[in-house]
Specification:
The complex is a heterodimer of chains A (280) and B (101). With 280 residues, chain A is of the alpha/beta class. Chain A contains eleven helices and nine strands. Chain B has no helices and eight strands. The chains are: A alpha/beta (280), B mainly beta (101).
Chain lengths: 280, 101
Amino acid sequence: MSREDVLVTTQWAEENLDTDGVVFVEVDEDTTAYEGGHIRGAVRIDWKNELQDPVRRDFVDKAGFEKLLSEKGIADNDQVILYGGNNNWFAAYAYWYFKLYGHDNVKLLDGGRKKWELDGRELVADVPQRPATSYTAKEQDLTIRAFRDEVVKAIDTKNLIDVRAPDEFTGKLLAPAHLPQESAQRGGHIPSAVNVPWAKTANEDGTFKSAEELKELYANAGLDTSKSTIAYCRIGERSSHTWFALRELLGLSDVKNYDGSWTEYGSLVGVPVETGTGAK
Amino acid sequence: MSDGCGAPAQTAIGDTPDTGDQVVVAGKVTADGGPLGGAYVRLLNADGDFAGEVQASPEGDFRFYAAPGEWTVRALHRHGNGQASVRADGPGLHPVAVAVA
């Protein structure tokens, strides 16, 4: 898989704002970002209020995803271009989520909203009205989603990649530094996990590093690419970003995202937890 | 409080805020002597590794919840970039100003 199969540049995006069958979707947690200005024609998906079940800690089910995409005016064969703030964290999460429900024709805008803004490209306030569709999703592809029991079994067996910042990995912080410190019951990481912060896969303008740079990064971290890999972070969105780098940009075959991540693992009773920099 | 990863809205912090036991690194992005809104502000640790990023408010304000240590605050804007260093010894407010050129 090449970079062009999974990423589009801001230049390509600007040239394809009016292309039939291409739908731009902004995915943010911060809804005010979209309301303050977005790429012309882009619809918005709220990762929390629209992609999460309102009661249980899980995703909306297949019917819920079909209803959401139908209301957004996205059809099965549309090419969806996802972008967002936070260095595309939630856009990458949505990319993984779209793949989970079998929407194959999806790409990320490389650099996301940040790159678009740093380029000085136009943002508009007009909210597009797309006619509703009748979207059909597939059953969840669980080859790309890891659950807690599998993660516990993966200790010392599969590659576990903790993509949080070093201070979160060691247990010094419970959440990223731009957030108040709250989260799981315990700080630390899953034993045998290697710490490769998501930010190391991105340039400061938010674009992904080249495949060669990514290969070197993971080789230096001691990642055995012949093994299966599970990525995690705090709530599963930064690890979607790394899942994207490993599976979509480097082409590793068995890579899963553990969306329960540290907020689940760090609150489980009876599981092993490691603090400090880790042995590996 | 947010249970996601998005930063709270960035606002100016008073001179004597109640930061509790939090280590707060906060300040304003400026250009040509005046406040510059909307810059992407990155917090880097002593090794230059990324620790967090927020988008400054329209008045240029930003805020991080960090750990004690040496930090670099780097601002990116379509009009230019800039950075400044700050040392946070412990809980409390650690102000830093970043000029972009």
